[in-house]
Design goal:
The protein has a single domain, classed as NAD(P)-binding Rossmann-like Domain (Rossmann fold). About 35% of the residues lie in helices and about 25% in strands. It contains three helices and five strands. The longest helix has 14 residues, at about 70-85. The termini are far apart.
Length: about 90
């Protein structure tokens, strides 16, 4: 039985590393990038053809989030994932 692709969110999606991770993930068949985001005030904006979402929306829709933003944002994301019952590391 084929495994479902892992849903992936990219925090700091507009930055150099966020763009690189998003591109690499999209080239694979075992990942689906379901959320790209940065600061919440950027939500709804288009970034390289993708619409940015809020961090809260990303936590709700992604199994994994890769974060290339700030240490403070990473801590907030980990807390949000833990509150959802997800893995936060």
């Amino acid at each position: 039985m084929a495994r479902q692709p892992l849903t992936l969110g990219v925090a700091g999606a507009s930055g150099r590393m966020g763009l690189a991770v998003g591109a690499q993930a999209e080239a694979r068949d075992d990942f689906v990038v379901t959320a790209r985001f940065g600061r919440d005030e950027q939500a709804g904006q288009s970034d390289n053809g993708a619409i940015l979402v809020t961090a809260a929306e990303a936590v709700e829709t992604c199994r994994v989030i890769i974060d290339f933003s700030t240490a403070e944002a990473s801590a907030t994301l980990a807390e949000a994932a833990a509150a959802q019952g997800g893995v936060a590391w």
